[in-house]
Amino acid sequence: MMGMSVPTTIEQCDLQRTIKLNDKKKLYFIEPFAKEDVIDDDAKPAASKAAPIAQPKTTTKTGGTINMWYNITDTGERKKMNGFTARHIWTTQKIKPSPDACMMKDSLIIKTDGWYIDLPEFNCPIRYTPSASPTTREKYQPDCKDKFVSHRSGKGKLGFPLIETRTIIMGGGKTNEFVTNLETVEFSSLKLDSMLFEIPPGYTETKNESDLQDKMDVQDMMNQYKTQAQNSINNSKPTTDEKKPGIIRIGVFKPTGGDQLQTSDIQQYLAGILISGNVEAVSVNSAEDAKNYNCDYTLSTDFTKIKQASKVGGILKAIKNSDPNAASSFNIDANLVLKNVADGSTRLQQSVTGKYDGKADDAAKKAMDEGSRLVLKGLK
Fold it and tell me: Cβ(112)–Cβ(71) under 8 Å?
């Protein structure tokens, strides 16, 4: 990412550990598989519990408890994949840390829709606990260990995944949602060299996983991001009105209600970021323009409020009565309306409201980042 090297991961199932390597630095880090207490919510409660086993003393600080509710549902669907009979399985994980947990602070929901097969010699365990990223370890005390407690329910079993679609919802669904897709594109039963699963010669062990990460040059990353965004904007307008089959094209009008903004720049920016899958966008000046470019929809944006955010103890002032270049953040409200070119009917309406950092134009573009995500999500 942005020129940074990504560690290579080796799972040694027989030794119950994961090895992470940085090829550029010739460093490796060993992480034992996380241990967890498992409670079967479908099983009848035991009459009594065995006395806990005494644990050896350690200098590692005891953190909190991370509870995870895990449900597995076998849909009953089966199909042949790579010569095996694959099972269609749905799983849901709800993870909630206690306030004193060190590995994670926010709740997490993971929904997975996948197809799985049984491999006779595949002995890696199916683990349910989340793994900590290097940034998480640095932020939440690397010398602190949490206790994991898993509550499992439902019928079915996993196995080796051939296809998985995983949706991760951070903060109980109120913050961020991420979707990842996994697909086995090649399958072979040929024997592999055992050295592929060993630490390469000439590598040095580190006790701190963060040593594997390259140091981030924030300014350089910002410059690269701006370059990519500008290239996206420059390439957003089709060189021809020809449109590939299956493509949805949106004609983006110049925003209204933002007299203090460079609305042409905002229009170009919005057209540049409205690209996802089979969706593309182009800047247009009229409904006739949209038809000429074979657009399926038009998108109009109206800024109903752009006010300079107050300083501590101050009051909000309308941006037209102040110096836009002096402000560091703005309260912005905007309405986005997507209409069908064919009949002029409204396909969807989305509202954006919030406080956005930066000068007027930069804050407006950040508001449009949010608006474009809502529009693309509404088209799915």
Answer: no
Per the CB < 8 A criterion, the answer to whether 367 and 332 are in contact is yes
Q: In Å, what is the CA distance from 291 to each residue of 113, 194, 267, 302?
A: 39, 61, 18, 22
CA of 168: how far to CAs of 34, 67, 101, 138, 328, in Å? Answer: 20, 17, 20, 22, 32
User: Buried b vs exposed e over 283-317: b needs ≥16 C-beta within 10 Å?
Assistant: bbeeeeebeebbbbbbbebebeebbbbeeeeeeee
SS3 state at 198: coil
Residue 261: count of CB within 10 angstroms of its CB: 19
List Cα–Cα distances, 85 to 75, 78, 155, in angstroms: 14, 6, 18
Give the pLDDT score at 175.
56
On the question of pLDDT at 5 being above 70, the answer is no
User: What pLDDT is recorded for position 248?
Assistant: 92
Whether the pLDDT of residue 253 is over 70: the answer is yes
Was domain 237-379 assigned CATH 3.40.50.1370?
A: no
Question: Which secondary-structure segment (H or E) carries 20?
Answer: strand 17-22
Tell me if 268 sits within 8 A of 254, measured CB to CB: no
Mean confidence (pLDDT) of the chain: 77
Distance of alpha carbon 111 from alpha carbon 104, whole angstroms: 18
How many Cβ atoms from other residues are within 10 Å of residue 111's Cβ? 15
Q: 304, 257 in Cβ contact below 8 A? A: yes
d(CA 336, CA 352): 8
- Please write the tens of the pLDDT for every residue from 217-232: 555 555 555 555 555 4
Count of positions (residues) in the chain: 380
pTM above 0.85, yes or no: no
Among 186-190, 327-331, 348-352, the range of highest mean pLDDT: 348-352
Residue 345 CB partners (closer than 8 Å, separation 6+): 339
**Which pLDDT score, from 0 to 100, does residue 229 have?**
54
Q: Which residues of 36-64 are buried (b: 16+ CB within 10 A; e: fewer)?
A: eeeeeeeeeeeeeeeeeeeeeeeeeeebb
Predicted confidence at residue 119, as pLDDT, reads: 79
Maximum CA extent, the chain: 78
